[in-house]
Design goal:
By secondary structure, chain A is an alpha+beta fold. Helix content of chain A is 55%, strand content 24%. Chain A has five helices and five strands; from the N terminus they run E-E-H-H-E-H-H-E-E-H. The model of chain A has no long low-confidence stretch (mean pLDDT 87). The longest helix of chain B is centred in the first third of the chain and has 34 residues, at 46-79. The chains are: A alpha+beta (104), B mainly alpha (204). Strand 3 (30-34) of chain A pairs antiparallel with strand 1 (82-84) of chain B, so a sheet runs across the interface.
Chain lengths: 104, 204
């Protein structure tokens, strides 16, 4: 979870964006997934998925590995330790907000 | 889409079975082992009985290699590849402990308990196999799996009623399970291929 200047927790916008949240959710559960699988399950276009994966990679949340399956290029992604911790913190943060609004 | 984590987890866990290949090749291996064992029992050949065990051991390795190759050609280009996170060491250890706790009394009963030498052993094997297949069919939404599960129970009931030897009865149950599994795999593979055509590769 990210903290603001006062030290209070705030929403992690890197994860909160819907497309990236889908990717992070899937990778949080799975060990790793290739581009084709993510494309189908996250229902994103190739370009969008590529961009979002790059952003998550730059943030250090996702590790991208490029290789070949026979002669066909293959890209797979998995969560890094930082990414896993960030997702847990994000989940805790959201659960806290939802709990605080119970009975309102 | 999939914001329900337990649903995603289940989907990832069962992804290996999405194409029916494990049922097809696993069933083929079990059928082959059972057929050779059945022939060994019919002819009284110790050599064939040993060959059946060799088939069982070799088929594990062969099926693993063939399955990987088939998945690379059939499944991954169509619907991609996802791997499940490895369970923790404690979970794996707990699984082994449970297996040992179940296996020791069963083996002891097999060796010493006269009740387990009766047709009840065949029937219980058939029911246990049938239940396992029905559970798999339920989890993977394979309707043909229920038919295969019922066939297993029916085969064990027939074998128990006729009064065949326990070994023969159990092999009949395994043969039914193997053939049933192959049929389920073939159905699942056909459905999978029909629903997931190979994507056209873009020209470079």
């Amino acid at each position: 979870m990210m903290d603001d200047a006062s030290g209070a927790p705030r929403l992690d916008r890197m994860i909160h964006e819907p497309s990236r949240l889908r990717i992070m959710t899937l990778l949080f559960v799975a060990g790793s997934a290739d581009f084709t699988y993510l494309l189908r399950e996250c229902e994103l276009s190739k370009g969008n998925l590529s961009v979002q994966l790059t952003r998550l990679d730059e943030a250090g949340y996702v590790k991208i590995e490029k290789g070949y399956r026979g002669k066909i290029p293959c890209t797979s992604a998995s969560l890094t330790k930082t990414g896993r911790q960030a997702f847990r913190a994000y989940r805790t943060y959201l659960a806290g907000i939802l709990k605080s609004t119970e009975g309102v | 889409m999939m914001q329900d984590l337990s649903g995603v987890r289940r989907q990832v866990r069962d992804y290996w079975y999405v194409d029916g290949l494990p049922e097809l090749f696993g069933g083929a291996a079990i059928s082959l082992f059972s057929a050779v064992m059945l022939t060994a029992l019919a002819t009284g050949s110790g050599l064939l009985a040993n060959a059946a065990l060799m088939v069982l051991v070799l088929s594990v390795a062969v099926v693993a290699v063939v399955m990987r190759a088939m998945k690379r050609r059939v499944t991954y280009p169509r619907t991609g590849q996802v791997t499940e996170r490895l369970s923790s060491r404690m979970t794996r250890l707990a699984g082994i402990v449970v297996w040992v706790c179940v296996a020791i009394p069963v083996l002891a009963a097999w060796e010493h308990g006269p009740v387990f030498r009766a047709p009840m052993l065949i029937l219980s094997t058939g029911v246990a196999t049938g239940l396992a297949m029905a559970w798999a069919a339920y989890r993977r939404s394979q309707r043909a799996g229920y038919v295969a599960a019922t066939a297993c129970v029916a085969a064990s009931a027939v074998a128990a009623t006729i009064g065949v030897a326990p070994t023969l009865g159990i092999i009949v149950v395994f043969l039914t399970a193997g053939v049933g599994s192959m049929v389920v795999g073939a159905f699942t593979l056909g459905y999978y291929l029909a629903r997931n055509p190979l994507p056209q590769r873009q020209a470079a």
